Amino acid sequence: MRCHNKKNISGLTLTELMVSTILVGIVMVGVVSFNYAIQQIQSSTNKSALLSLQAATIISNITRNASKAVGYAGNYGIIDVNSPFPESLHGTVSFRQDRKNTPTDFNDDTWVIYVNDPNAHTLRICEQTEDQGGASPSLGAGGQCSTSKAKTLSKKVKDVTFWLKVDPEAHYGYVEISLTLRDKPNTNIDPITNPETTISTRISPPGHSW
């Protein structure tokens, strides 16, 4: 008869099994955390891209209407309101346009009005469909650019300013615009969860005499 040597067969001890389980758990937590971080970055990138696109679209809209403004020294046809009092008009601008092509007559001109509501973080635009006898537009909730008549451009406005700057001696002027959008305007900025974007530009209407 032949004798076969029996080899000892042993499995993992309880301690080894616990150590292995802990190591696997650590690896899985790392994987989950990494995936979560990637998702957060992707979400932040999407939010930032959408904010930048919206801001660029708004600036393009304002630039187009500002470039059509008509006026001259002493009657610029551009009204900027940046004083915080009254607060409802802070960050408001109006551009007079000669849509009927009557350069010597302002009485039949129309106005394009941008109204910022800092309490609602909303920027609206109101375009007159008929002339108002050349009169300056009435701004605010009860005027020609009421909430019901205006179109909303953004509900993510953190800050917007319009400044009309004129140098009479140099016969030169321009409108300086700064627009800041934040994903959640009432919440502190965070580069990942609450991104912000700012665009600034200057516009000098080519058909304007200063």
Describe this structure in words.
Helices cover 25% and strands 28% of the residues. With 210 residues, the protein is of the alpha+beta class. It has one domain. It has a 5-stranded antiparallel beta sheet, with helices on one face. The radius of gyration is 31 Å and the shape is elongated. The chain starts with 13 loop residues before the first helix and ends in a 7-residue tail after the last strand. 25% of the residues are buried. The model is unreliable at 83-88 (pLDDT under 50).
H/E element order:
HEEEEEEEE
Spatial arrangement of strands, main beta sheet: 1-2-3-4-5
Biggest pleated-sheet summary = 5 strands, antiparallel
The percent range for strand residues is 25-35%
Counted up, domains total 1
* Rg (CA only): 31 Å
Treating each run of at least 4 consecutive H or I residues as one helix, how many helices?
Answer: 1
Protein topology:
Blueprint: H1 14-66, E1 78-81, E2 92-97, E3 110-117, E4 122-127, E5 151-154, E6 157-167, E7 172-182, E8 196-203
Antiparallel strand pairs: 1-2, 2-3, 3-4, 4-5, 6-7, 7-8
Keywords for this structure?
alpha+beta, 5-stranded antiparallel β-sheet, elongated, 210 residues, 1 helix, 3-stranded antiparallel β-sheet, single chain
